[in-house]
Amino acid sequence: MIAAQELATTARALVAEGKGILAADESTGTIKKRFDSIEVESTEENRRAYRQMLFTTAGAADFVSGVILYDETIRQSSEDGTSFPELLEREGIIPGIKVDCGAKPLALADGETVTEGLDGLRERLEEYRQLGARFAKWRATYSIGDGLPSEYCVWVNAHALARYAALCQEAGLVPIVEPEVLQEGAHTIEESSRATGRALQAVYTELHDQRVELDGTLLKPNMVLSGYGAAQRADVDEVADATLECLYRHVPAAVPGIVFLSGGQTDEDATAHLNAMNQRGPHPWELSFSYGRALQAPALKAWGGRPENLEAGQQAYLHRARLNGAARTGSYSAEMEERAAA
């Protein structure tokens, strides 16, 4: 078993100053939708070429500490035969792996889900560590609605997240715990805060009960937002204040870092919200990012599946990473977006 100190060191490295995590762990179905949007066929080779473009971007390691891979991706290699985990490590970036099997309907709970994947997880974690992974991720989802999320959904998912986290630490991997309260709907920011707080409180109760060492973990939560369908949306300052209030109430100071998911926000909004929270620091934990689409969307569009657009795709990715790196220190501004567009 890997020493707890080593896990804590890896967790802190993932939230190093000015850096965050690239979530490149889209399932085959999800990345097909992304490729469909740019009219590129989602073949294994095209997926490999796209991810190689991201992973070989010069300068990205200045702003990206780690990359979450998918099962297919952790087994792939660059054109010169270097495995992707080895390629990332060579750049000073820590490889990670998504290990859950997705959210499935929760029995006897209409409209709610439970994340599956605990069966055989111990053996899969051992293999992923041998393949080069040093951290892992597991996502649970909760909907806001009439009576939702239910206590049943909140506690079933918290228990599974904690079981996953304990198995990760046993295998020598830092667990990223991702309880995502979905922001689809017309709910208010106050309703989002209540649902997020309930999910977090249950998660940390279960993590404690299942003997997980918190200093060797990271939290990947949603930001507290108004529902995307709300008639009146909270502004950047309101989101920052509501999110921080929720985190201070429910997240122990022993957790080294919080790496937010973007959850369907625009690239600019995800960066602006993170920036506003860091401007209100210092905080007990590092506030960082673990973005997928909000880091990749400009790169995907610029690349368009064409080898001749490789450099353009890398520059778009590097620019987005640089802006989020600035948000880590509260030094991002909208003028940075405008300068890039000029």
Structural description of this entry:
The chain is an alpha/beta fold and about 350 residues long. It has one domain: TIM Barrel (Alpha-Beta Barrel), CATH 3.20.20. The chain has 13 helices and ten strands. It has helices spanning about 5-15, 30-35, 45-55, 70-75, 85-90, 120-130, 150-170, 190-210, 235-250, 265-280, 295-305, 310-325, 335-340, and strands at about 20-25, 65-70, 95-100, 105, 115, 135-140, 175-180, 220, 255-260, 285-290. The strands form two sheets. An eight-stranded parallel sheet has the order 8-7-6-3-2-1-10-9. A hairpin with a 7-residue loop joins β4 (about 105) and β5. α9 crosses α10. It is globular, with a radius of gyration of 19 Å. The model has no long low-confidence stretch (mean pLDDT about 95).
Write the layout of secondary structure elements.
Elements: H1 4-14, E1 20-23, H2 28-37, H3 44-55, E2 64-69, H4 71-74, H5 84-90, E3 94-98, E4 103-105, E5 113-115, H6 121-131, E6 135-142, H7 151-171, E7 174-181, H8 189-209, E8 218-219, H9 236-250, E9 257-260, H10 267-279, E10 286-291, H11 293-303, H12 310-327, H13 334-341
Parallel strand pairs: 1-2, 1-10, 2-3, 3-6, 6-7, 7-8, 9-10
Antiparallel strand pairs: 4-5
Helix pairs in contact: 6-7, 7-8, 8-9, 9-10, 10-12, 11-12
